[in-house]
Amino acid sequence: MTDSLVKVENLKKYFPVKLGMFEGWRFENGKLKRNRLFVKAIDGVSFEIMKGDTFALVGESGCGKTTTGRTIVGLYKRTGGEIYFKGKPIDSFLKENPRDFKRNVQMIFQDPYSSLNPRMKVYQLISEPLRVHKLVKDKKEEREKVIEIMKNVGLEPEYMSRYPHQFSGGQRQRIAIGRALASEPEFIVADEPISALDVSIRAQILNLMEDLQEKYGLTYLFIAHDLSVVRHISNKVAVMYLGHIVEMGDTDEIFTHPLHPYTKTLFESIPSVEKVKQPLKVTIEGEVPSPINPPPGCPFHPRCPHATERCKKERPEIKEVSPGHYVACFLY
Ligand code: SF4
Questions:
Q1: Which of the listed residues 265, 301, 313 should we mutate to test ligand 1's pocket, taking the one with most ligand atoms within 8 A of CB?
Q2: What distance in angstroms lies between residue 236's CA and the mean position of ligand 1's atoms?
Q3: What is the CA(328)–ligand 1 centre distance, in A?
Q4: Which terminal Cβ of the chain has fewer Cβ within 10 Å, N or C?
């Protein structure tokens, strides 16, 4: 049986909206009261990532996938719900062993240039986590380890005295991966790690991530909007829409038997998706509704060609419709 590494239950993250002088206040029963509005970036998301998985989160921009990743690694404080790491609620894990969590959980960002300190040389960028987490005993071991990591991510050790701006985009992402690997993590959140890169080097970075996963037994949460990439790299996938997971399951199953109308339209709208067996005829219309004022009922109903009166009033719970395949839709 595989071990659970990360589990999120009913995770919520709301961001307060800054209101102007007039919309920020209202009169109620003769008293002046403050209006509060929130962007419900994630609104009750649950999933489990097993050790060794590459779990992909997909959806249109603004669906909450990046917020989910950032909330799990602790860059955002959650509004509600629970996160478990190795079976323990995150708050107790952090209380008992804060360094262990920071060492074990790393994030790779979309833009390697802005995620790397431009004033630090490659050596400093990679050796810093080694020192912070006391993973080397002296300078000699530190240097050996930096050389080993650089080789493992496909960088020439002779470039260790260079600054990030002296590298190409793909090489900078290799530095970012090397820095993330230095703390010997078990879990990496990769937020669109190849979408800012030149098309010609995307495959190289993907292959590198796969090789490193095998070598170090890594577990990934892979956030992406390119479905062909998701199909290639992940073994589990969750489709997000307006802060909710609408469909989730094994990657092969979701790609060959997509059920949710949103998943179908998403697959149809991206031309690079390959081997979706049935020709999908559903077309998506309209904009994603505002997460400040989400529609009642099913969040997808204003754009769904199958919406009924029930869909406008009730929100469908996510249910297991076949072993390991979950869908939130009244059609199933
Ligand atoms: Fe469409 Fe209704 Fe299913 Fe939502 S619940 S996806 S509106 S059919």
A1: 301
A2: 23
A3: 8
A4: N
Q: Tell me, what's the pLDDT at 2?
A: 63
pTM of the model: 0.88
Nearest atom within ligand 1 for CA of residue 311: 2
Centroid of ligand 1 to alpha carbon of 266 (angstroms): 15
Neighbours of 320 (CB within 10 A): 11
**127-161 residues labelled b (16+ CB within 10 A) or e (exposed):** bebbeebebbeeeeebbebbbebbebbbbeeeebe
| Predicted pLDDT at 272 | 47
Q: 4-327 falls under which CATH superfamily?
A: P-loop containing nucleotide triphosphate hydrolases (3.40.50.300)
How close is the Cα of 114 to the center of ligand 1, in Å?
39
Distance CA 102, CA 95 (A): 12
For the chain, list residues with pLDDT below 50: 272-282
Closest CA to 104 of 207, 218, 221: 218
Q: Which DSSP string do the residues of 254-309 spell out, in sequence order?
A: HHHS--SHHHHHHHHH-TT----SSPP-----SPPPPTTSPPSSSTTGGG-TT--H
Ligand 1 neighbours (beta carbon < 6 A): 260-261, 298, 300-301, 304, 306-307, 311, 316, 329-331
According to DSSP, the β-strands at 236-241 and 244-250 are antiparallel
Residue whose CA is closest, atom 3 of ligand 1?
Answer: 329
Give yes or no for a contact between 212 and 179, defined as CB atoms under 8 angstroms apart.
no
CA distance 191 to 67: 10
